[in-house]
């Protein structure tokens, strides 16, 4: 049976670091603060918002919400972003996506100040990931994948890594972050020929396909480490990943379960980025 790479262990380590940084900031009169901009009432947004808010409270980080209706006009969204950009007390901003289709998402997200972009959604933040430069922050979910690998001492140097999924939210940025850790990375997607054979060759597999159980036992072999980024609801109404966990657990060396894996670490990374943004802001003065 595979070793379970549990998020709670990674969180415990991350949260201790965050608490130390927050305590030092507060001694210097600074309370790190997250601004959350949510448009509409999507259940997945609400769920993540609840988790982020609770994690902020636990770690001593302030949180302010800006909730707009689903039919909001673009001008009001831009006005809200300009407001948080100018607010000296807000150090990081979480803007939920996807935005309603009547809004120009590209224009809106790139209005956000890069130094407050703690979830890596702006073009400048993404450029930083691809260029290996510190411009803004990397997206939280790919960062959570790296945190899990680091915490469990999984060295990427020289390893063959396959990333299943090519989105800008997870697939492409996590591939670049793994290259930075000296892995040899292949990205698979819907047009990949004989994907199961490609995945089977990997030492480390990151699955972010957005489809429940797309990677089953036929894709896997002994000795692999599997990071399952997917969050889906199956026919029984239970959370499940993009990997068929029951089959994978019997084959691979280690795997992140869903839930209890990458998802919780993502929230801690978000808060960590807010705290680091507060430190950066303080050091500029």
Task: Give a written overview of the molecule.
- The radius of gyration is 19 Å and the shape is globular.
- Helix 7 links the parallel strand 5 and strand 6.
- The relative contact order is 0.17.
- The mean pLDDT is 96.
- A 6-stranded parallel beta sheet has the order 1-11-8-7-5-6. It has a 3-stranded parallel beta sheet with strand order 3-2-4, with helices on both faces.
- Helix 2 crosses helix 10.
- It is 42% helix and 15% strand.
- It contains 10 helices and 11 strands.
- The protein has 285 residues and is an alpha/beta fold.
Can you write the helix and strand succession as a string? EHEHEHEHHHEHEHEEEEHEH
Radius of gyration: 19 Å
The overall pLDDT average reads 96
> Which bin fits the share of residues in helices?
40-55%
The secondary structure category is alpha/beta
Strand order of the largest sheet: 1-11-8-7-5-6
Report the span from N to C terminus.
53 Å
What low-confidence regions span 5 or more consecutive residues with pLDDT below 50? none
Shape: globular
Biggest pleated-sheet summary? 6 strands, parallel
Question: How big a fraction of the residues is strand?
Answer: 15-25%
The oligomeric status of these chains comes to single chain
């Amino acid at each position: 049976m595979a070793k379970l790479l549990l998020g709670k262990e990674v969180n415990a380590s991350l949260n201790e670091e965050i608490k130390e940084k927050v305590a030092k900031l507060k001694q210097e009169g600074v309370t790190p603060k997250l601004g959350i901009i949510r448009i509409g009432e999507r259940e997945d947004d609400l769920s993540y918002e609840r988790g982020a808010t609770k994690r902020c409270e636990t770690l001593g980080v302030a949180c302010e919400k800006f909730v707009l209706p689903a039919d909001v006009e673009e001008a009001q969204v831009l006005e809200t972003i300009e407001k948080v950009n100018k607010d000296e007390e807000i150090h990081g901003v979480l803007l939920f996506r996807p935005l309603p289709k009547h809004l120009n998402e590209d224009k809106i997200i790139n209005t956000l100040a890069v130094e407050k972009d703690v979830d890596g959604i702006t073009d400048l933040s993404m450029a930083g990931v691809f260029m290996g430069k510190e411009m803004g922050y990397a997206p939280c979910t790919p960062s959570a994948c790296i945190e899990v690998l680091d915490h469990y001492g999984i060295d990427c140097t020289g390893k063959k890594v396959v990333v299943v999924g090519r989105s800008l939210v997870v697939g492409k940025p996590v591939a670049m972050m793994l290259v930075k850790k000296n892995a040899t990375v292949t990205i698979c997607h819907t047009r990949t020929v004989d994907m199961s054979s490609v995945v089977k060759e990997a030492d480390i597999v990151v699955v972010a396909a957005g489809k429940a159980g797309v990677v089953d036992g036929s894709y896997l072999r002994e000795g692999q480490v599997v990071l399952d980024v997917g969050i889906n609801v199956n026919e029984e109404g239970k959370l499940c990943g993009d990997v068929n966990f029951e089959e994978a657990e019997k084959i691979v060396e280690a795997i992140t379960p869903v839930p209890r894996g990458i998802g919780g670490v993502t929230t801690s990374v978000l808060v960590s980025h807010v705290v680091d943004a507060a430190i950066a802001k303080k050091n500029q003065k």
